[in-house]
Each structure stands twice: as C-alpha cells, then as structure tokens.
Amino acid sequence: MMMTNYMEVLMSNQPWNLIAFMVLPVAMAELLTAAELFILARPETSAGWKKLSHGLGIALGLYFLGVFLCFILHILPGISFRGWIDKLAIVAYLAGVLPLGAIALQELGLFGGPSAKRQWHHILLIISFLVVSHIAMIFGMVDPTLSGWQPPMQQMQQMDHMGHMDHMDHMDHMDHMDNSMQHHDGMQMK
Fold this sequence. Notes:
By secondary structure, the chain is mostly helical. The protein folds into two domains: 5-147, no CATH class; 152-190. It has helices at residues 5-11, 16-41, 47-75, 83-95, 97-107, 115-140, 153-189. The longest helix has 37 residues, at 153-189.
C-alpha cells in the first residue's frame, strides 16, 4: 500500500515529526477545547480556565505558525503530490494555521469584538481547527492510489522487490522451521 506525503512526513524522523506536527498541536487544541467547555459550564468559577485558555490560545497559534512556516519552507518544496487525496490532506493540515492564528490574534487583543462574542468566535475557531485537522488525518491515512494516482515505475519495482524479499524471508523461515522439526522428529525416533 502506498501512503500520502502527509503520512510519510509523520512517519519519517520518528518520533520527532509525529510529536511536532501532530501530537503537540492536537493535544494543545484539545486542552484548549476542554478549557472552553469548563468556562461555559461554570463561568463564575473559571478564572483559572480563562487564564489557561488565554495563554494556550497564544502559544498554540504561534506554535502552529512555526509548524506552518517549517512545512511551507522546508517540506512542501520537496513534495510531489500523489493525487487529490494527498493534496486534500496537506491543504487541510496547513489550513489549520487560519483558525489558530485568529485565536492567537484574538487573545492578543488584535482581533475580535465584545467579550461575549469573542468567546463564541473562539469556540468556532477551535472547532474549525479540529475539523480541518481531522480531515487531514483521515485523508492522510488513505491510500493515494484510490484517487487514480499511480506511483512512478521505479517505486513500483522497489515495492515488488520488497514484497519478493518479504516472501523470500518467509520461505527461509518456513524452511528453517521444517528442518528444525525434522531434526526434532529424528531425535525422538532414536
């Protein structure tokens, strides 16, 4: 099975790419979501959650801006898209910079409106990020050949060779097991 560039980026340089590009931003967004839910549930006793939401909103927006720039400047130029599924995964992932950037600007007082509207905008922006990040994850896990993309011939030959090697390793293992069993049976007969 072939993988999208999105999944290939996450799987390379293990575990650092996975942590930097997925774990940290998604974990921070989920913590931010939890903080917003606690603020909505008990607004009168949520001073700590409001502080966390404020700081985390700024940190997450700035962090994802750094991830976005790293991806645009260092990763994207070397990518050859593998069909529309691959493009959708990458574009959805990168689109996360819009809601997270807006949250950071809002927390810095550069965007938003009255306090009541700001909270709803904040929630809608978090939801927007969670939607695009999940679209990226879902389509990032799909085999890009389902969109009609065909890998270059060299990749196909490498995959066939690897499949042949896996088959040969399996056959060697089976031969070894068979020889061991014959040796074991021979010892029992004596």
